[in-house]
Write a structure and sequence with these properties.
By secondary structure, the protein is of the alpha/beta class. The chain has a single domain, classed as Nucleotidyltransferase, domain 5. 36% of the residues lie in helices and 18% in strands. Strands 1, 2, 3, 5, 6, 7 and 8 form a seven-stranded mixed β-sheet that branches. The protein has a two-stranded antiparallel sheet with strand order 4-9. The chain is globular. The C terminus is likely disordered.
């Protein structure tokens, strides 16, 4: 279903991880489906007595079944195509050798920009010539250290439609439609947080963490692993041979990036090198 307005919700997780860093997650939804999807998710939360904000970090043994039930509802909406999920991360073993000091300082924003620019297949937004451009709203969960950083970031996102990559597309991102939001007010962003948190959790081997001074894992760690396994199963209903650490094949074409209900993107710099010592099988187990 093609819409004339889309909303992109964005979240981020670990900037630095043991093996993977710079995690970004997003959901894109058409305005025609938005109210229906939000109503379904909020109703499910109420049914499960989840009255406060749901987040990956709040998962416990007591609540894991409720979270799984909410995610079952969420992934049914994803599978139906009413909401589409995108995840991006960077493997530490992929190292860029030509990053300037300024680029390093602004890495968080530069990668956020790349995520919004490339992960959603915006090249496919081509309404008929006689119709207005597609309007995009971008809602980001509390970014930025300073107003200057936030304003620069908003300026780059606002200018995206003028990028040569989108010369055949017709969409606009008004500057006042790029907004910082609080996740506790948006159930869709809360669901993205849980999915993104689960991917971060597994890729950085947090499921193996032991209680201090013991050889045992905590109940919360085990509960989070159970939720992750459920999420993995739901993703594999969409992509049968899904590998959590690799880009999904659909990322190779604009149509794939636009149409697929769920995709992963392992971001690699064009001029990067691969250092096997920084992988899970390498000699250095904690490079960060």
């Amino acid at each position: 279903m093609f819409d004339h307005e889309y909303i992109i919700f964005c979240d981020e997780s670990d900037k630095y991880g043991k093996y993977f860093s710079n995690f970004y997650g997003g959901a894109i939804i058409g305005s025609k489906s938005y109210q229906e999807v939000i109503a379904i998710l909020n109703h499910k939360k109420q049914e499960l007595n989840l009255f406060s904000e749901v987040k990956w970090e709040k998962i416990t043994e007591l609540y894991k079944t409720k979270y799984i039930d909410l995610l079952r509802c969420f992934f049914a909406l994803v599978a139906s195509g009413k909401v589409r999920i995108r995840i991006m991360f960077r493997q530490n073993a992929h190292i860029s050798r030509s990053v300037s000091v300024e680029q390093q300082a602004n890495q968080y924003y530069l990668l956020y920009y790349q995520f919004i620019k490339n992960a959603f297949g915006l090249e496919c937004l081509k309404p008929p010539p006689q119709e207005d451009p597609v309007r995009i709203r971008v809602y980001v969960d509390q970014i930025g250290d300073t107003y200057e950083h936030i304003d620069r970031f908003r300026g780059f996102i606002h200018a995206l439609p003028r990028n040569k990559r989108f010369s055949l597309a017709r969409f606009e991102i008004p500057i006042d439609a790029i907004t910082e939001i609080r996740s506790h007010e948006h159930v869709l962003l809360q669901c993205v947080d849980i999915v993104l948190g689960s991917i971060t959790f597994r890729l950085n081997d947090k499921h193996l963490e032991k209680l201090p001074g013991t050889r045992l894992r905590g109940k919360r760690t085990k509960a989070k692993e159970d939720v992750y396994k459920f999420i993995l199963g739901e993703i594999r209903k969409i992509h049968k041979n899904f590998n959590i650490g690799m880009s999904t094949a659909v990322m190779n074409t604009p149509e794939g990036r636009w149409n697929t209900p769920y995709s992963h993107w392992n971001f690699k710099a064009k001029n990067g090198e691969y250092d096997t010592k920084l992988t899970k099988r390498g000699k250095i187990k904690n490079p960060i």
